[in-house]
Design brief:
The protein is an alpha+beta fold. It has nine helices and 15 strands. The chain is about 25% helix and about 25% strand. The N and C termini lie close together (about 5 Å).
């Protein structure tokens, strides 16, 4: 079975309020890419990865006027994809949902949120992801109450062969100081963003612990906007959010595994893979980063898992297929990450 995660940049901009694809010459939300070009590119990419289930980060919006499921299933019908059913969890206000598009002939997927709901005051005991989380971080001994702007998508999956597993789709807050102007403002916002990002990862890790305690097979995947050493403010807290989610430093039964994450934790001299590519308008250069992961529990790690980042400049087989290479570059600023595993 193939499981994928894919951050599709501003997919919401490709649909009207009725979920109909906007295949025209108007600009998409991607720089110098029309909506028709992005649609065509996405069709090529989704067909090529041929996954049984794709966790889509930045999926179309869910609101009173728009339907995430309707838009994604229209997209699947447009290109004849076998991943033709969609499911979401708690909607958010960012116009970037987390949703699973999957092949109903291969598996079923049901939204299964865990934890008790906690309101504005929050709870320190792994509350439901649409509530609030209380935590005291070591930097200043101040109690913080945080929420997810994009609540993780918790799913119960069952394969056609009867195998059951849990899945959590994630889009953790970016640490970039968007909108900050002065050096002091950049520092304050960067520290605040890092603080919130770490709190979200600790909250997510509590939920992971609940699954591992009862030996649930579990896949945690998505865009974590993080990795060790990505910014200098990490030193204030001592570790990255990625390390928290993986369970770095714990015993093996308590750890999740992703070989790409393992490579960035191995030290600065190790060659690092990347899953995203951004253009820096100031330096006129592209910057690459590893932000997208597919992490598995120890029991799944024993089932011959194989990972692949569909990066056209790091995967020689993809580079040799011009149509797929160009489609990956036009479709999004992130590239899909797939996991092939015997379920």
């Amino acid at each position: 079975m193939r499981i994928a995660t894919y951050n599709v940049e501003w997919m919401n901009a490709l649909f009207d309020d009725d979920g109909r694809p906007l295949q025209d010459g108007q600009w998409s939300a991607r720089w110098k890419v029309t909506r028709a070009q992005q649609f065509e590119a996405l069709g090529i990419v989704f067909t090529a990865i041929d996954a049984d289930a794709v966790m889509i980060v930045e999926a179309p919006a869910e609101s009173r006027r728009r339907s995430t499921v309707g838009a994604l299933e229209s997209f699947a019908a447009l290109f004849g994809l076998r991943q033709r059913r969609a499911v979401i969890g708690f909607p958010n206000q960012t116009e970037q949902e987390i949703a699973l598009l999957y092949d109903p002939d291969r598996l079923s997927a049901v939204h299964r949120p865990l934890g008790a709901f906690a309101g504005k005051k929050g709870s320190a005991d792994a509350p439901r992801f649409d509530g609030s989380f209380q935590i005291e971080l070591d930097i200043d001994a101040t109690l913080a109450v945080v929420q997810f702007s994009k609540p993780p998508l918790e799913l119960a999956l069952e394969t056609a062969a009867g195998a059951a597993l849990g899945m959590i789709g994630v889009h953790v807050k970016s640490k970039a100081p968007h909108g900050a102007r002065s050096p002091d403002e950049i520092m304050r916002q960067s520290i605040a963003n890092r603080r919130k990002q770490l709190a979200q990862c600790i909250w997510l890790r509590q939920r992971i612990d609940e699954h591992l305690l009862v030996h649930d097979p579990l896949i945690v995947l998505g865009d974590f906007n993080d990795g060790p050493g990505l910014d200098e403010y990490e030193k204030l807290f001592g570790r990255s959010g990625l390390e928290i989610v993986l369970g770095e430093g714990r015993s093996s039964p308590e750890q999740l595994f992703d070989p790409n994450a393992r490579s960035v934790l191995s030290g600065p001299t190790v060659a690092r893979p990347s899953s995203a590519r951004f253009y820096n308008d100031r330096t006129k250069r592209y910057v690459s980063a590893l932000l997208d992961y597919v992490m598995v529990s120890p029991d799944l790690c024993r089932r011959d898992p194989r990972w692949r980042i569909w990066h056209p400049f790091e995967d020689a087989a993809i580079y040799r297929v011009p149509e797929l290479r160009e489609a990956l570059l036009a479709a999004s600023d992130h590239f899909p990450v797939t996991l092939d595993i015997d379920l």
